[in-house]
Design brief:
Largest interface: A-B, 61 and 62 residues
Shape of chain A: globular
Strand content of chain B: 15-25%
Number of helices of chain A: 8
Helix content of chain B: 40-55%
Shape of chain B: elongated
Largest sheet of chain A: none
Largest sheet of chain B: 7 strands, antiparallel
Radius of gyration of chain B: 25 Å
Oligomer: heterodimer
Helix content of chain A: over 70%
Order of helices and strands of chain B: HHHHHHHEHEEEEEEH
Chain lengths: 172, 277
């Protein structure tokens, strides 16, 4: 068992990565409700297993790998239970936005559009491009080959570039 | 370093952008981009995708993380994952910003200027400028920025008027911001009053009362006069990176309590302030 002070420090660190953790969860689940449930479960597991965190490297990497594993488990359970999987962002009526008005609708569409990229693209993009993980780190977190990281990353970038034109046309 | 030879050009250029190719490949790709219009256009598209995606995903960080979850983590013996869903713990508030449109427009202009020109065989050297449009900021954005700066100041520069001038602070700030108030005693919450500042946020004068806890963490109460006709509202919680903010409307004024996001008792502090101020 870890000393209380060390445990408190871990909890504090965990709180500090919550916004990033929620964003990463969104890239996996591609809808807000599932992401929030996933974040809850990850936090519970991280706290109960914080003695396994060796303090080396980035805490996010350890937490993200746990998040990915829990999400894969959840998908498997759902497939067994219902024969279905997740609901893609593109198929949902609304994401997490509760504001109103034209601008809010636009923000909603933008979130939906980004999260509706084919499975796996957003996660790789966030890990490497947004948060600066190396290809190796991203591959370890997502448990995919580095070659897959590379191809998903370039595909994500090209898709995002195409969205620039799409969003401009929608707003015109 | 990755060996990308034999892979699709966009994959190779993507790895080049990330510095994940060897020195030899880097030089090879740079030479290719220098002489090949299509390669150059691909590279520009990848860069544009980067910029667009970075901005878009950064926006996700502005979604509030409920303090109920923070408290569970901070205080636990453990969290109960299903007892309190994040989605229900706090109303999600989306800050609507103008940047997506501005970004899309500027990057599209850039792409048109730098890439399409090659396709149609014309040279465009007019350096299409990017369009910078300020995001729609609220007074809470300003308060968060102020707090990040002032909370890192030494004790000497933490406040404008020290706590020893308590009565003067009340009259000074009340007349400056147009909101009558009493200095809240937060000693029961472990916070010591350090003094006050007058700020400008959202284009209006704002009173800022600064407190510290035993660990030296800085907490602030900020308030300003609301627009006429603004009705009282419930407290709203949000986390902005390392800061937690609880804001509310009451009696014709807007209030916010700011503290470290890792503090588990901010809600109790806000409750006390709401009653005492």
């Amino acid at each position: 068992m870890r000393p209380a002070a060390e445990s408190n420090e871990f909890r504090r660190d965990l709180v500090s990565v919550l916004p990033k953790l929620r964003r990463f969860a969104m890239t996996l689940t591609r809808n807000a409700a599932d992401a929030d449930d996933l974040v809850q479960e990850v936090c519970e597991r991280a706290i109960t297993r914080n003695h396994l965190w060796n303090g080396e490297g980035r805490l996010e990497s350890w937490i993200y790998a746990m998040t990915r594993n829990l999400w894969i488990d959840e998908i498997r359970k759902r497939k067994v239970r219902t024969g279905g999987g997740t609901v893609d962002a593109a198929e949902q009526d609304e994401l997490s936005v509760e504001a109103s008005g034209e601008k809010a609708v636009y923000a909603n569409q933008l979130h939906k559009m980004i999260l509706s990229m084919p499975e796996g693209l957003a996660s790789v993009f966030v890990l490497v491009n947004v948060e600066g993980h190396s290809y190796r780190e991203a591959a370890d977190i997502l448990k995919i080959p580095i070659g897959t990281v590379m191809s998903r990353l370039s595909t994500a970038r090209m898709r995002l570039a195409a969205m620039i034109t799409e969003t401009t046309e929608r707003r015109a | 370093m990755q060996n990308t030879k034999g892979l699709a050009l966009e994959v190779r250029l993507s790895a080049y952008l990330d510095g994940e190719v060897s020195e030899t490949e880097r030089k090879e790709l740079e030479q290719l981009v220098a002489r090949d219009d299509e390669a150059r256009m691909l590279l520009e598209m990848l860069k544009a995708g980067n910029a667009f995606g970075n901005k878009a995903f950064e926006e996700f960080l502005h979604d509030p993380v409920p303090l109920s979850l923070v408290r569970r983590i901070k205080q636990g013996p453990g969290v109960n994952p299903k007892a309190e869903r994040v989605v229900n713990a706090a109303p999600r508030q989306t800050k609507v910003r103008l940047w997506p449109r501005a970004l899309a427009a500027s990057i599209t202009l850039l792409l048109i200027g730098s890439s399409t020109g090659y396709i149609i065989g014309r040279t465009s050297n007019d350096g299409t400028p990017s369009v910078n449009v300020a995001a729609a900021r609220t007074w809470l954005d300003d308060i968060a920025d102020y707090h990040r700066i002032y909370s890192r100041q030494t004790a000497e520069h933490l406040v404008e008027v020290p706590a020893s001038s308590g009565a003067k602070i009340e009259s000074w700030l009340a007349s400056s911001v147009g909101v009558s108030f009493s200095l809240p005693d937060l000693s029961t919450r472990g916070l010591t009053f350090e003094g006050a500042r007058l700020l400008v946020a959202g284009g209006k004068p704002v009173a800022q009362l600064m407190y510290k806890n035993e660990d030296g963490d800085v907490f602030a109460i900020c308030f300003l006069k609301s627009k006429p006709g603004t009705s009282d509202g419930n407290m709203a919680e949000s986390i902005r990176d390392d800061l937690a903010m609880i804001s509310w409307q009451k009696g014709g004024a807007s209030y916010v309590v700011v503290g470290p996001s890792s503090d588990a008792n901010l809600q109790q502090v806000a409750d006390t302030v709401s009653t005492a101020i």
